[in-house]
Amino acid sequence: SKPSVFITRKMVPDIIGNLKKQFEVRIWDSEEDAVPPEILLEEAKKVDALFVTISDKIDSSLLAQAENLKVIANMAVGYDNIDVEAANSKGIAVCNTPDVLTDTTADFTFALLMATARRVAEGAETVKQGNWQSWSPLLLAGHDIHHKTLGIIGMGEIGEAVAKRSLGFEMEILYHNRNRKPFAEQHLGAVYCSFEELLERSDYVVCMTPLTAETENMFDAEAFKRMKDSAIFINTSRGRVVDEDALHKALVQGEIAGAGLDVFTNEPIESDHPLISLPNVLATPHMASSSIETRIEMMNLCSENISRILTGRKPKTLVNKEWLSVKEDIGGLS
Ligand code: GLV
Ligand code: GLV
């Protein structure tokens, strides 16, 4: 019988069609609701491939029961929803979707920065609610973006793409990262700093770092205290990089001026969460990579990776490089 694939969300028909030509395909066919964990587990026990999203938790207990599983294709660049070490120990390939979403995610990060600084959502709401009474000198006066200092935490591909965009606004670019980035320093004029110095000097602190044991809660009370009281914090990476209680306190006490947040500790965040009611918070529903073109490319890449692995070929993108070296040692890939 054909190898089988379980897809945890509704995808565009072309993608499903391509997979169906080669494999037995089952789908949790919902646009709105994530697959219930017990159904995901039942499928994981049977299938050769899982096509998942960041709302699906692929932990070691699920993987321990996934007897036939060969590949997990995650429709995201981040993969903190997957226990990669457990997948490794079972010889399961983990694939993500880097590169195809870089510019789209950087565009949105810059849009969120600009919208937060210039109060775009408040302005739109003012008009929509019929509250625009007259032109007035300080009506919705925000913060300038041009010629300010941008601080990027996590200078990967997306961080560099954000830095590129800021050049048009003649911003000064600071960055902090595990490794120095010679390209960004030489070609974008980005200046490396310690985390602390970046926080103290930046007008915009933009978080782009992946969620790992090292970065969890790195934006804590002390970090927000270090920032300028005029600083704006932007997060399009993962919510758990931030201590949300500390962020709330910093915003209420005026330790920072505002925040643009696309990601949260618990998603979806409740509309009555204390952060959401603050006038100086602009919150969006984890949509930074969501352009039609890019979401289709991400689906395609997941589908391609699954096809390749189930037919004994190298995937286009792979998180656990260990998987490849083991397969190459046994001469099992073309
Ligand atoms: C989305 O959050 C992603 O990691 O691609
Ligand atoms: C955080 O700064 C990182 O290491 O990317």
Give your account of this protein's structure:
This is D-glycerate dehydrogenase. Keywords: Oxidoreductase. This protein has 334 residues and is of the alpha/beta class. The chain has 2 domains: 4-99 and 292-329, NAD(P)-binding Rossmann-like Domain (Rossmann fold, 3-Layer(aba) Sandwich); 102-283, NAD(P)-binding Rossmann-like Domain (Rossmann fold), CATH 3.40.50. Helices cover 37% and strands 14% of the residues. The chain has 13 helices and 12 strands. The strands form 2 sheets. The chain has a 7-stranded parallel beta sheet, sandwiched between helices. A 5-stranded parallel beta sheet has the order 2-1-3-4-5, with helices on both faces. β6, α7 (157-167) and β7 form a beta-alpha-beta unit. α1 runs parallel beside α12 (292-310) and α5 (102-117) crosses α7 (157-167). The protein is globular and about 70 Å long. The relative contact order is 0.13. The mean pLDDT is 97. One glyoxylic acid (GLV) binds at residues 153-154, 176-178, 209, 215.
Task: Give short descriptive properties of this protein.
334 residues, alpha/beta, Rossmann fold, seven-stranded parallel β-sheet, five-stranded parallel β-sheet, D-isomer_DH_CS, oxidoreductase, D-glycerate dehydrogenase, hydroxypyruvate reductase [NAD(P)H] activity
